Amino acid sequence: MIKALCISIVLFYSSIALAAELELYGSARLQIESVAPDNQQNSFDSYNDLRDAYSRIGINLTHQLTKDWTLLIKHEIPIDLANQKIQLAYDNDTKTRVSKVEVNTPLGKVWYGRDWLPFYNSISYSVDRFSGYYSGWATYTSFREKETFYYQSPQLGYFKFTYSSTDDNGRDAFGSENSNRNQYVVSSSFGQWGINLAVDDLNSETDQRIFGAAISYTADNWYLGAKVEIFDSNDVVGNSDSYGADGTQAINLYTQYSINEKNIIKAMLAKVDGSYGDDIFHLGYDYLYSEKMRFFVEYYSEQTTAAISERRRSTLLGSGDFNQPADSGGNALTIGMRYDFSWKN
Questions:
Q1: Cβ-based neighbour number of residue 331 at 10 Å
Q2: What domains can be seen in the chain, in order of their start residue?
Q3: Which of 264, 307, 141, 299 is nearest to 211 (CA)?
Q4: Which residue, 339, 344, 340, 334, is CA-closest to 130?
Q5: 126: buried, middle or exposed (CB in 10 Å: 19+, 13-18, 0-12)?
Q6: How many whole angstroms separate alpha carbon 210 and alpha carbon 214?
Q7: 124 pLDDT band (50/70/90 cuts)?
Q8: pLDDT digit string (tens) for 49-78?
Q9: CA–CA separation, 128 vs 120, rounded Å?
Q10: Rounded to 5 degrees, what angle do the CA atoms 85, 88, 92 make?
Q11: Cα–Cα dist 67/204, whole Å
Q12: Whole-angstrom distance between the N-terminal and C-terminal Cα of the chain?
């Protein structure tokens, strides 16, 4: 009986695989950087070196279950080109970027596994549009988490609702154990305007929540985005300058102008409380050589420690020897390239 059941399961998934569309894809992203911490005496000297800018390779297996139902199996791994290893550019402990099973239906989209979380997608991404390694640090929320259940409703008039629940997301900013991490998002679009509201509830011992709001405007060659994130906690540890303290805020203003189809200018100002960057300035230029290839030049500066770190190292604390950040912020000038590729059966 058990043998017959196993054979049936194998035949079922084999039939799906044979009928499915297979896509292999990847993105090679590498930059040359000149990095200078503000306090070289107590941290490290300035240097010039290579750093990976979030290269990845992945596979999509898509199967049309019915006319309106689609199954997607996705797995994506990070490739640290500078270190020539399978790992995230900021975390040598993580070997997987995305791994999920997803079903798209007329009633909405559902997936389980590891992928981008709705708070980041709706709030942080509105100002996270640079091409280099230093993009995306000016936020409090997490990008992706494993063991996540995700549901997004279909478009309901001007609105769309998204919910996610993560079972295993480690510790909060104060070192307390988390149980389930729940995120709630309301997204709306009105012509050229987009307005999103979100809550990232960490369900920790300190009852931490991150409230977020983002607004964007697109017109002709311009894109404008702004977001604010506010920590809420009933147990303030340390002082107002500590990461995750009650009332600390991350405020970002972003603008992007496309000179033409190939040349794009980007700029961002941010204020991230909690000694996690504080005053941040990011300026970038992208040259789209082709549909698959682009080159970029960026300048990034931060007042306190966030992303500036030693050669091909990271500021993500607790990640082995990748925990050697500057102790005073600093600046970085980068020149890089990005090449995207894909193949379908």
A1: 17
A2: 21-344 (2.40.160.10)
A3: 141
A4: 334
A5: buried
A6: 13
A7: very high
A8: 999 999 999 999 999 999 999 999 999 999
A9: 9
A10: 70
A11: 42
A12: 36
